[in-house]
Write a structure and sequence with these properties.
Elements (H helix, E strand, L loop, with lengths): L1 E3 L2 E13 L7 E6 L20 E3 L9 H5 L22 H5 L5 E3 L2 E4 H9 L2 H7 L2 E5 L7 H13 L3 E6 L5 H8 L4 E5 L5 H8 L4 H10 L6 E7 L7 H14 L4 E6 L5 H6 L14 H13 L3 E2 L4
Parallel strand pairs: 3-7, 7-8, 8-9, 9-10, 10-11, 11-12
Antiparallel strand pairs: 1-2, 2-3, 2-6, 4-5
Helix pairs in contact: 3-5
Amino acid sequence: MKACMGLISGYIFELQNFSVNDGKGIRTVVFFAGCPLSCQWCANPEGLYINRISYRKETCIQCGRCLQVCPCEAAMDHQGVPVWGKCSSCGACAAVCPTGSRKALLHQYTSEEVLRLLEKQKIFYRYSGGGVTFSGGEAMLQKDLLRALVNQLYDEAVDLAIETSGYFDFDEVKDILKKMDMIFVDIKHMDRGKHRVYTGIDNQLILKNIARLKALKVPVVIRIPVIDGVNSDIENIRATAAFAKANLDDPKIELLPYHMLGDAKYEALGLEKPNRSFKTPSPEYLLKLQRILQREGVEVVSYR
């Protein structure tokens, strides 16, 4: 992220309008690039790279225009796919691709540009009780851009929510968090070692930050991405419930069943797909987990 001519700018990989899954009412979700975690099941791998180019072989007509403009000779190998190791992500190939088979996934916006795009959606927020949700990646990594957007939208009385990994310096972003109407924060696993295995970092800072949210008096929803073979065991669910109850005034948990909707993105980015041992829990098992949470004194909520 950088400032240009006095303006705050940063990288965003999507502004998703008409979302009804990320807070109250009809919302726009602003997906910030970058994440401090490397979850093995990530559904948005495009958000982990700055200016990564995607390639969809099924729509490519092999016209050769990308070969003509690529400065790194990375546009194609003999099988018709990008040579990812050579690619500099300059975007030249995406600019000339006639079928959109090559796309620059991330875009640099100033805060003013984002606010202008959000302005067009305000009528939907007003009549549905919706607003703007900041997501990612991890929005806190680009705190200057996030703060500029939050301060302006807060002054305009727009409902604000954030979806976060919980991995951030609390004191550096406390002013941002205080202006939220809802905070969604993930707990991937309660076991410190297993959290490190599956996400690349341990969970101590995340749990500490969740405990500190209580003082802000902002509604908090803990989200668990429920994955069979990773964190769906009853012991982990009960431990998460106990933590939520001990550290939040009004503990709420949302269970998000694992899905493989991001597989096509991995293919388009030339990345290895998530471990095939990861499984989606059955509806019956999810219902069992919900009942366990309720018995532990935690409210089960759903924004899906």
